[in-house]
């Protein structure tokens, strides 16, 4: 347990260790809703139409919205999602050079999530570039700009998503937004703001986090598990199991989204006052010797477990498979500690992934 300051000077509590972190992730007293904050950092100031997303609500509202949203990510839809992922991965990997140095970040890991998420949301191909440009600034925690870039990006994203929702209302398709437009729980349905906030949450979780995950998994496989991974290429379930194992090792997200205690909470004999900002250190939990083999927090834990976890894992598996199948001999160009990193304290994420094919 530590008291700390964020780069902007906001005071926060940082909870470390497997037991404490997993316990608080599942604790109903730890709210994700900024309305339960009494002091300190609450996150980005989102437009009202984006503020009520799954990452920023809790209690009955969270249960209701998640129930209406979850059907679109149910196993019955995985085949449709996988078709999109496989097609996007194949196109990107085919475009990589056959030999020599490969820009696996710029050529594969960065462009993949926008293609997948944009297609699944129902965006037309010609809007995917605009889609990524609007989303990218929202993932870089940099207070030097005064938040102007983030606010501009959110406004652009709001306009894009609102346009797609209107298009799908007139002409539904085989996509997430169309699924959400028709989702029902008895007489209950999603409001316009909830629809936009859902799309926003999928973008937040599905762009930069997946880029960080796929690049970290690919680097770890090539660097430390190449021989084993190639042996398992012909056994898809075991190859997927190896990727899942590696995900628990590299786990690029440093902290879970901030939480606010609904009452004073005692952690390791220290009292965190009601409403104070708390960050749960996922990285410390993964490094804790008390963590049992096979358990991880890659996609969180408890009621805020990532709704798109299967889709993210699917991308990591197919990226690794396609690259290893194309390149019988592959090695990192740099030591891992030489990689440039993305300017975010929330994630430990590579800004580059140069590989060499022989």
Overview of this structure, please?
This protein has helices spanning 18-25, 48-51, 59-70, 78-94, 104-109, 112-121, 128-135, 148-170, 176-182, 192-206, 208-224, 226-232, 236-250, 282-287, 309-326, and strands spanning 2-5, 11-15, 30-31, 100-103, 260-261, 265-267, 270-272, 278-280, 330-332, 354-357. It is mainly alpha-helical and 358 residues long. It has a single domain, classed as Cytochrome P450 (Cytochrome p450), CATH 1.10.630.10. Mean pLDDT is 91; it is low at 141-146.
Features:
Cyt_P450_B; 48% helix; monooxygenase; mainly alpha; metal-binding; Cytochrome p450; iron; 3-stranded mixed β-sheet; 358 residues; 15 helices; 3-stranded antiparallel β-sheet
CATH superfamily: Cytochrome P450
According to CATH, what is the class?
Answer: Mainly Alpha
Shape: globular
Helicity level: 40-55%
Q: Gyration radius, to the nearest Å?
A: 20 Å
N- and C-termini, Cα separation: 48 Å
Spatial strand order of the main sheet:
1-2-8
The CATH topology name reads Cytochrome p450
Q: Quick one: how many beta strands?
A: 10
- Known CATH architecture: Orthogonal Bundle
Average pLDDT figure: 91
> In percent, how much strand structure appears in the residues?
5-15%
In N-to-C order, the SSE pattern is EEHEHHHEHHHHHHHHHEEEEHHEE
The number of domains is 1
Helix count from the secondary structure assignment? 15
Estimated structural class: mainly alpha
**Sheet having the most strands:** 3 strands, mixed
